């Protein structure tokens, strides 16, 4: 009896294990931020998109295909020409994700590597068409407008393939060597022009100062002439006496200075307290 009991338990355990293996092989998980489409060997890709969670499928007959529907970044470098035929190197940064309801169509037409097939194709096409409408200088001064135009047109093109573009930006913008040298020469010329303008303005200010100074000297001379006419030689004599007093005071403060009065041949030492 005991042997039969354990034999039955062993058979039941084996059956449960086989059943568990079959059930486990018929389960699949869809993680957060992902969706799944089912490929059926008899009917092809099913239109229903499977959401997050654990789901059943028929082994061998069906196969789940998992897609990441979260935003993903991609850089697309493009070399193109501007309206004035200047070479432009632009790098476009795109944040993209697939539209969940479009996943069966995306897999049928493009496959799981849909981004590798579509973005390198439509991004350069749109970018070249937009950049060709602007001069090289406008690409710098109107960069925001260029980015908006590219974003609008690229969003429309991507939607045709089942994409959503969350963000589009121009992260890198450079020009050819010839244009860069021309810009540098233009900047140097502008700096030289500013320097020349400063020199001219400085010369004009100096000229104006000279004119004002000359006018002041002329006015002073006129006042002196008027004073001479009114006071005669008395003003000149007064100025001479004031100058002599100032000279005598300065000489009195200097050591080793001798004073020789008029009409004498003997040197007299100048008193140290003279003028005090």
TrEMBL record:
CDD domains, A to Z: SPFH_prohibitin (cd03401)
UniProt KW Ubl conjugation keyword: no
Protein origin, superkingdom: Eukaryota
Location(s), subcellular: Mitochondrion inner membrane
Keywords linked to the UniProt accession: Membrane, Mitochondrion, Mitochondrion inner membrane
Residue ranges of domain Band in the record: 26-187
Pfam families membership: Band_7
Record-level GO cellular component terms: mitochondrial inner membrane
InterPro entries from the UniProt entry: Band_7, Band_7/SPFH_dom_sf, Prohibitin
GO annotation (BP), single: mitochondrion organization
Keyword Phosphoprotein in annotation: no
Family named by the database record: Belongs to the prohibitin family.
PANTHER family membership: PROHIBITIN (PTHR23222), PROHIBITIN 1 (PTHR23222:SF0)
Name the UniProt record assigns to this protein: Prohibitin
């Amino acid at each position: 009896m005991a042997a039969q009991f354990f034999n039955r338990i062993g058979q039941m355990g084996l059956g449960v294990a086989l059943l568990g293996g079959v059930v486990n092989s018929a389960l699949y998980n869809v993680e957060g931020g992902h969706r799944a489409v089912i490929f059926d060997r008899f009917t092809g890709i099913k239109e229903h998109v499977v959401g997050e969670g654990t789901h059943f499928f028929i082994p061998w007959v069906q196969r789940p295909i998992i897609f990441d529907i979260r935003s993903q970044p991609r850089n697309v470098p493009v070399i193109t020409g501007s309206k004035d035929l200047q070479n432009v190197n632009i790098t476009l940064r795109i944040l993209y994700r697939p539209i969940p309801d479009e996943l069966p169509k995306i897999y049928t037409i493009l496959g799981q590597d849909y981004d590798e097939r579509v973005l390198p194709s439509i991004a350069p096409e749109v970018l070249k068409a937009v950049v060709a409408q602007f001069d090289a200088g406008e690409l710098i001064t109107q960069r925001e407008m260029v980015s908006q135009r590219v974003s609008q047109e690229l969003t429309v093109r991507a939607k045709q393939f089942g994409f959503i573009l969350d963000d589009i930006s121009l992260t890198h913008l450079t020009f050819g060597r010839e244009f860069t040298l021309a810009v540098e020469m233009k900047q140097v010329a502008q700096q030289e022009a500013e320097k020349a303008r400063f020199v001219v303005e400085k010369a004009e200010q100096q000229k104006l100062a000279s004119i004002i100074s000359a006018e002041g000297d002329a006015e002073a001379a006129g006042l002196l002439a008027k004073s001479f006419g009114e006071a005669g030689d008395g003003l000149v004599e007064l100025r001479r006496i004031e100058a002599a007093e100032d000279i005598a005071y300065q000489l009195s403060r200097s050591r080793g200075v001798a004073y020789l009065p008029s009409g004498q041949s003997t040197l007299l030492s100048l008193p140290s307290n003279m003028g005090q």
